[in-house]
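Suppose you are handed a protein chain with no further information: no name, no annotation, nothing but its sequence. What can you learn? This example shows the usual starting point.
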Amino acid sequence: MQTNEATELVLIRHAPVQSNGLLYGRTDLPADCSDGVKISWLRDALGTPDTVICSPAQRCLQTAEAIWPGQGAAAQTKPALWEQDFGAWEGIAYADLPDLGTLALADLAAHRPPNGESFADLCARIAPEIAQIGADHCGQRVAVVAHAGTIRATLALAMGTVPAALSFEVAPLSITKILALPGGGFSVQGVNQCAE
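A reasonable first move is to predict its three-dimensional structure. Written in C-alpha cells, the prediction is:
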C-alpha cells in the first residue's frame, strides 16, 4: 500500500452551540462561530482541503463557512453523518438524564435511548459512509465537519472496536486526522487537536 494513495480524512467537530443545558443530538441548533482565534487556528492548520463534506446540521455548515468562507455553502452534505439520534431524550436537561456512568463501555455502546439509536447503531450508520468517502477521494485531503458522535464512530471504524471509541474526548473546533488506506484499512494520525 502506498500512503500517497490514501485519503486524508480531517474531521472537525462543529463550533459550540447554545443548548441551555439540554441534550441536542438531532436538534438543529446554530453554531457559535464567534471565537475568531480558534477559527483562524483551524484555517491555518488545515489550509484548503480538496473537498469539504458536512453533516446537514446547520451548526456544521456554519462552522465550515466560518473556516473556509465561500465553501460552507458549497460543501457536500451527507445525511448519514448526522449526530446520534437520542430519541425521547432530545431536549431533556443533562441533569435529568439517566446516569449511565456505571455501565461498562460495551453496555454503554449498546444502550439505546427510547425511540433513538445506540452508539453502536451510529457506528453502523457512519461506517459505510466514511468508507465510501475514503474510496471516492483517493489521494485527496477531505475535510469532514461533523459531530462528536460522528468522529467517535469514525475512530471506532479505524480501530475496529466500537466500545473503546467512547473513551475519546472530541472538543468543539478540534481536529481528528485519519488516513483511509487503499484496500480499506485506516491509520489514526491524531485525535482532538485544539488551538492552545
